[in-house]
Amino acid sequence: MDEILHNIQNIAVVGLSPDKSKASNMVAKFLIKKGFKIFPIYPKEDEILGQKVYRNLSDINENIDIIVMFRKGEYADILIDEVIRKGVKTLWLQLGITNENAKARAYANGIKFIQNKCIKIELERLENGIFK
């Protein structure tokens, strides 16, 4: 996981809420502050945190290093198809989100898969030199 975090720059955030009290918004704000380029994916807004919002992954015309998902676990069954088509190397399901079917499909397609972990917590752990 550390190697993944060391080699990312462009992050698609699926389910990035405009609500500042939501975890997705707080994590995305942290990622921006740390210098990552984020690509919000959300159905109802045009801009979140000063970033252009996309309706789906295939609308993004830039290379994406990692997708961080803040939706119910079953949505990963749909998202994994987009991840495969787009050629993204890593799919990350946030803390409390899991999907074993999507995990199996990711691995079968050479995609790194992380679930039930918070990217913000893991980046802070790396930054502070805390190893697990």
TrEMBL record:
InterPro entries: CoA-bd, NAD(P)-bd_dom_sf
Entry-linked SMART domains: CoA_binding
Domain CoA-binding: 4-97
Pfam family, one: CoA_binding_2
Superkingdom of source: Bacteria
Protein name: CoA-binding protein
